[in-house]
Amino acid sequence: MGELAIEQPGFQHFDVENRQHAFYEERPTDNEYAVLRQMNGEMMPVEETKDDASATELLERGYLQYGCPHYHRRCRIRAPCCNEIFDCRHCHNDAKNNINVNQKQRHELPRHQVQQVVCSLCGTEQEVRQVCINCGVCMGKYFCGTCKLFDDDTSKNQYHCNGCGICRIGGRENFFHCYKCGCCYSVLLKNSHPCVERAMHHDCPVCFEFLFDSRNDVTVLPCGHTIHKNCLKEMREHHQFACPICSKSVCDMSKVWEKFDVEIAATPMPEPYQNKMVWILCNDCGKTSQVQFHVVAQKCAHCKSYNTRQTRG
Ligand SMILES: [Zn+2]
Ligand SMILES: [Zn+2]
Ligand SMILES: [Zn+2]
Ligand SMILES: [Zn+2]
Ligand SMILES: [Zn+2]
Ligand SMILES: [Zn+2]
Ligand SMILES: [Zn+2]
Ligand SMILES: [Zn+2]
User: Fold this and answer.
1) Is residue 178 a part of any domain in this protein?
2) What is the DSSP code (8-state) at residue 207?
3) Among residues 122, 141, 157, which one ends one of the domains?
4) In this structure, is the dihedral angle defined by the CA atoms of residues 246, 250, 254 and 257, taken in order, positive or negative?
5) What's the pLDDT tens digit per position in 149-205?
6) pLDDT at residue number 72
7) Residue ranges of the chain with per-residue pLDDT less than 70
8) CA separation (Å) from 81 to 51, 71, 86, 186?
9) Which of 92, 119, 127, 145 could connect to 132 by a Cys-Cys bridge, CB 3.0–4.6 Å?
10) Amino acid 5: pLDDT
11) Nearest bound ligand to CA 149?
C-alpha cells in the first residue's frame, strides 16, 4: 500500500513545567531572582556588578553535572510515599513499580506531594525550592513548584499547564489546552480536531499505557481518539488502518480505496454471485447501504470507503 501521509502533528508528553516564578514557595532573594531571569534569557543582561557575577557563579555551580538518566538536576527528592530518597520520580517508579516488587507494595510517586529535596552539591535536605537554602546553588534551571520538577535541560521547553495540572514539554506557545479533551494539543490542531471528552485519560489501545502523562509521543486520530505515535506506526506496518476504539480509518485512505476499485474491477465475481446483494455498515460514515457482494471488500455507497462490515446477507 502506498505512503499514507496523515498523522496530524502530535503532542509530546513528559512531565515537566514552566517558568512561572510565582510558583516559588520560598522566593529567591532579589539578587538571585535577577540572576535567574538573566540565565533564563528573560532580561537583557545588564551591566554585571560584582555581586551579580558571584551570585551567577554560585547558582551555576555543577550545571549539567548531576542527575539521572531522566533529568539533569542538582537535587534529589524524598519520596513522600515511602520516605526514601531518589534521583527523580521516574527512578522511584522504576524501583518501586515493577514486577519484582510485591504487588501490594507497588506504587507510583505522587509528584505533587513531594515536600523535601536534597541538594546534590552540599547534601542539605530542605523544603522544595529552586535555590539551595544552604549553598545557594540553583537546583534546576527549570523549576515547577507545583509539580516539584527540577530540570537543568531547558532545551525541552518545559511549561506547566494549569488545565492538565502537570508540566509538559515542547513550548507553551506551541500548545493549547483543550478543556473538552482535557489535554494539551498542538496549536496546529486547534480548529481541526474532533473533541472527545477526556480523550487522553485512557490507556493506549495498543500497548495499554496510560496516555495522559505518557513520556512517549501521542497522536490524535481523525476520529479524535488518541494513541502513541509509535503504536500507530506499528499498526500501520501491520496494515491495520482502523482505530482500535471506534474502527474509523486512521488516515486518509482514498488512494487505497482507488486501488480496491481497480482490483475489484479486475476480478469479477463468478456467475452465481453476480447478483448477490448484501447490507453493509460503514465504519467511517456510520451509514448503511445495500451493495453488490464482492469477496475482496464492500464499498460504502455514501462515502466510497471500503472500511465496512457486512450486517446481513
Ligand atoms: Zn531519575
Ligand atoms: Zn546546597
Ligand atoms: Zn508543573
Ligand atoms: Zn494542558
Ligand atoms: Zn478537544
Ligand atoms: Zn501505545
Ligand atoms: Zn476512533
Ligand atoms: Zn461511508
Assistant:
1) no
2) T
3) 157
4) negative
5) 999 999 999 999 999 999 999 999 999 999 999 999 999 999 889 999 999 999 999
6) 97
7) 1-50, 313
8) 41, 21, 12, 34
9) 119
10) 32
11) 3
Q: Is 190 among the domain residues?
A: no
CA separation for the pair 167, 157 (Å, rounded):
10
Total tally of structural domains belonging to the chain: 2
Ligand with smallest separation from the Cα of 231: 6
Q: Report the alpha-carbon distance of residue 53 to residue 222 in Å, rounded.
A: 53
Range of the domain at 82: 21-157
**Ligand 3 ion: residues within 5 Å (CB):** 17, 144, 146-147, 160, 167
- For residues 31 and 148, state if they share a domain: yes
Domain identity same for 30 and 151: yes
Cell 525541552 locates to: 156
162 Cα–ligand 4 center, Å? 6
Same structural domain, 261 and 146: no
- Among the candidates 130, 157, 184, a domain finishes at 157
- Read off the CATH number of the domain in which 266 is found: 2.20.28.10
pLDDT at residue 49 in the model: 65
In the reported structure, the alpha carbon of residue 121 is separated from the centroid of ligand 2 by a whole-number distance in angstroms of 5
Q: If you measure from the C-alpha of residue 88 to the centroid of ligand 3, how many angstroms do you get, rounded to a whole number?
A: 14
Task: Give the residues across from 161 on adjacent strands.
Answer: 166
- DSSP one-letter code for 299: -
145 in the same domain as 273: no
Q: Where are the alpha helices (DSSP H) in the chain?
A: 30-39, 50-60, 89-96, 229-237, 254-266
Amino acid identity of residue 160, one-letter, is: H
292 bridge partner residues: 277
Whether 110 maps to a domain, the answer reads yes
Return the pLDDT at 84.
96
- Assigned domain for 53 exists: yes
The pLDDT of residue 53 is 82
